[in-house]
Amino acid sequence: MVDDKINLKKRSDTIFEGIKKTPFNYVTEGIIESLGLEDKDIHNKPFVGIVNTWNELNPGHKHLRDLAQAVKLGVAEAGGIPFEFCTVGPCDGWANGNEGMRYILPQREVIADSIELMVEAHRLDAMVTLSGCDKINPAILMAAVRLDIPTICVPGGPSFYEVRFTPDYVGIEQGNYEDFDHKLKCISCATYGACEVMGTANTIQCLMEAFGMTLPNAATTPAMTRMKYIIAKNSGRQIIELLKQDLTPSKIMNQKSFENALMVDVAIGGSTNSALHLPAIAHEMDIDFDLEIFNEYSEKIPTIINVSPSGDYGIVDLYKAGGIPAVLNRLKEFLNLDCLTVSGKTIGKLIRRINVLDDNVIRPLDNPVYPEGGTVVLKGNLAPEGAVVKQSAIKDKKMLNFEGSALCFNSEQEVIDAISQNKVENGSVLIIRYEGPKGGPGMPELLAVTATLMLKRDLDRVALVTDGRFSGATSGPCIGHVSPEAYVGGPIAIIENGDIVRIDISKRKLEVDISDEEIQERFKQWKPFERDIKSKALLKYKNLVSSAAEGAIFKF
Fold it and tell me: What is the pLDDT of residues 340-396, one digit of tens each?
């Protein structure tokens, strides 16, 4: 039995407040009792939502049912009543390279909304969330900020790649292997869990921990391990402690912890999709966010995590090297160490006795993987509001400053066809437009294009510029999120084949060699490219979504 029921049940008690003197009180109580609960528990124990994104379509989430059982056991042991419910949890891997990808990013808002609606409808007192993959993790954080009830996040953790089970394992990065079979094993998941690179899934799991919203080491602990189960169970126990302390997300996720998350993002070589999700989370937190802040932090914090696509190793190696606590320890001179976490302790106290266990995976600040942070923002007459690139993942440093001839396409499939038919030559800058939030609609990832380019060894002097976005696992000179997007009249809409595009990442510039007058002249003849969209969900998204520079949030 939990003490101080009024404090712990201040939300769930309201279920009965307005009706306790009416016969309907017995109807409501009877319905809740039909779940197998006793009257004494209903009125004395807090209601804890177990927000599960489990499904059988997503290998990053298929193990979450077992972790949910651990969480519920922990909640019950600590004196709460766990109520599990599910929301959607898409797998980007299924959707890449086909029409399904247009439906992925829109689910971020659906997930956040669905959690808010379920928790508010049932007046739950607290929640523990389970999530693993790209859009789901940021949606969880968005919902946590909105609801501001005691919340602990349980990240699903990384998978093991097949290549780990070969005798000559040397790392996750495909470039470490000449044999094509080994290259394929670098992208083949051997277990459930998030793909074992610093893609969007693992990036946001790491940022959940950097925000202070998980127990220590929760982000990088492999999905299929005993320790992951224990973390889940302990999270269930700890949520009751958060209720007792009234420790809500607004006391953990604030301006200072947001800065910590951003610093960790650039240090770990996080996914470029962070430039969509961090602004969206900031919006929920009522924090003004300017993409230029990526440049500010990248100038003072280097990329220190030697994990693919910026390095050679995988997330499991990061876990063995000490995980996010060790990363925080390495960055302690920059961080706000007084930020609270769901453990009840500050970041400073949590990392006080933490050591880095492998300097090759978590590099010292004076021996980084890359001298600046991973993600930077480029601007210029091709991207007046900004574009995003992961500079740490550009292996050929000559491509950091590149000039090439534009080759323009209005869809991802057109580019894939052109590459497969050998119609793309070295020295080209591939322009892929009308793939932004509104123009897509849905701002699809273009992983099928970047993966195809990686396998074409003769195309080593090709850059890619798009108003769409990329997988966090993308490497090379791939510039996305060009804003304004083509559909709303961004300059990328009127680029023509043969125009000279200049990319200067060190100076944060993305420009096309045509005058402002010529740009205006071309727009006189311009009409946006329209796709025949029948989906009501996508049409709704198209009408509500904002610019990628604002995080592709909904504006009403």
Answer: 999 999 999 999 999 999 999 999 999 999 999 999 999 999 999 999 999 999 988
Catalytic annotation present for 471: yes
Q: In the prediction, which pLDDT does 124 show?
A: 98
Distance linking the first and last C-alpha atoms of the chain = 44
Alpha carbon 503 to chain centroid, angstroms: 26
219 in a domain, yes or no?
A: yes
Q: Dump pLDDT digits (tens) for 197-219.
A: 999 999 999 999 999 999 999 99
Residue 1 is predicted with a pLDDT of 44
Rg (CA), the chain: 24
Q: Is the pLDDT of residue 507 over 50?
A: yes
CB 150 within 8 A of CB 80: no
Which domain covers residue 475, as residue numbers?
Answer: 376-550
Distance CA 492, CA 494 (A): 6
Written in H, E and C, the secondary structure of 525-540 is CCCCCCCCCCCHHHHH
Nearest CA to 430 out of 443, 458, 411, 457 is that of 411
Q: Would you say residue 95 lies in a domain?
A: yes
What confidence tens digit (pLDDT) does each residue in 139-189 have?
Answer: 999 999 999 999 999 999 999 999 999 988 999 988 889 888 898 899 899
Q: Are residues 96 and 175 in the same domain?
A: yes
Within 13 Å and on the Cβ side, how many CA atoms surround 40? 3
Residue 91 region by backbone torsions, left for phi larger than 0, else alpha for psi between -120 and 50, else beta = beta
- Which of 12, 308, 392, 471 is flagged as catalytic? 471
Find out whether 490 and 360 touch, Cβ atoms under 8 Å: no
The average pLDDT across 6-18 equals 87
Same domain, 237 and 384: no
Per the DSSP assignment, residues forming a β-bridge with 390 are: 375
Please, are residues 196 and 130 in contact by the beta-carbon 8 Å criterion? no
Listed residues 350, 368, 386: the one ending a domain: 350
Residue 529 domain-assigned? yes
Q: In the structure encoding, which two tokens stand for residue 71, read together?
A: 């969480």
Domains of the chain: total:
2
Of 332, 356, 167, 165, residue with least CA distance to 263: 332
| Res 2 pLDDT > 80 | no
* 10 touches 125 (CB < 8 A): yes
Give the burial class of 36: count Cβ atoms within 10 A of its Cβ; 0-12 exposed, 13-18 middle, 19 or more buried. Answer: exposed
